[in-house]
Design brief:
Fumarase C, Chain A, domain 2, mainly alpha, 494 residues, two-stranded antiparallel sheet, two-stranded parallel sheet, Ribonucleotide Reductase Protein R1, domain 1
Length: 494
Amino acid sequence: MTDEKIVDRERFGRARKASASEIVELESKRNSPIPFDVASYYGQLLVHRAHTIMLSEEGIIVHEEARQILQGLQNVEKKALSNPQLVGYMSTESALIEEVGPVGGKMHIGRSRNDLGHTQRRIFYRDQIERVIKEIIEFRVKLIDVAINNIETIMPGYTHWRQAQPTTFAHYLLAHSESASRTIDSLEGIYRRTNQSPLGSAAFAGTGWQINRIRTKELLGFDELLENSLDGVASIDYFMEFAAVIAIHMSNLSRLAEDLQIWSSDEYLLIDLDESYAGTSSIMPQKKNPLILEQIKAYAAESLGNMVATIASMKGTSYTNTVDRVMLEPIAIDTVVGSTRIMGGIVETLRPMKENMVKRLMEGFTTTTDLADTLVKKHGLPFRQAHDIIVDVTLSCLRDDKKASEISNEMIENASLKVLGRPLKISDTELREATDPYLNVQRRNVIGGPSVNSVKAMINNQRALLTSEKSRYDARIKRVSKALSKLKVAENIL
């Protein structure tokens, strides 16, 4: 039988190009979600290893017993790869005892499933927080890179979906980059509150065994201890926070998706999406539908539901270990990682339709704020009177089907006569400069404004923040990696 090229029959019409790889990856994960206990099982095994080493170092079990337990755990881990039923703690312990005999039961000295489970979850969530941070950093890199190429790409800015003032595409993208930076800041705070060890809390009141909680904290890469043993098995606020920040970040991605979907519509034609991020119609040949943008908005709603379920599950729940909690499932984290990656890819590959952007500016009245400001600056009017004059001019244009570029000195004279009782004469130069969208943008040469200099300054600031974010991320990853290396060394010493 000859090999045949696999054809995606969902890709046709104006969406013949293969779907972007990040879309395919996220769809695959969502179609085959991994259960929490399976995804976090590596954390349980790390806890077993660290706890066993500590028991040996403290003389609670002898070295030979520790070596047998650690060797047995390696065999159990291999079996669990093909048998997910082994990932529960009691199943793991039973499998260990089958491997090494009754000595396997000594692994549980001085602890409970309660502190074990909470430690396993904190390991998993800390790693997932880092995973999200890494993806948002990459998202910010893409936003900034595209902004650099569009510093002078002027376009209408909107409020309430009405043309408001001229801006640039770069200025818009940097707003999302700045927002994403705040998300990273929030996640770093959550990481600090997550990366605290509850191990040694046992059921809730600690243990009578003289265990070394500091040692297991160090071997597992935790930065701090959760000192109070009851708090160690009762608190889940760290992943409630994680769920909340995910919902906020997804909401921001959804707002970006909303703008891009509208700007890519036939009525706006401000951007053109790459075919790999679009679908088509089974009946209408002309369609290139931004389906993934709609899916991102749906995923944002889903993340909000996850947050509500996680937080609501704790309402009125006793402050002790409980299974009332609703976990933040791995697929929820896969979805935010995938969505962030997709939105970065969309921004990176879209094409600003620059001629249409300028055309929309010239057809609209986005420059009238500066025309009013000109009357204030050059002719000493109070802004409200200047505003009223330009309102009258705008209404006159709309009534006569004229564009802002067709506003004349005579129209301003007539409007000022109505408002002030006297005609106001402005020069041709004042009128031309006030209604030029390019000059409008350049006049906004203030901190955070859309002018070329202001945007370049923001890009430099965002790049500096990115460097700092990457440095902190690398340092955290290195700290945990170094701790796990110490765990391996401690095993080899036994």
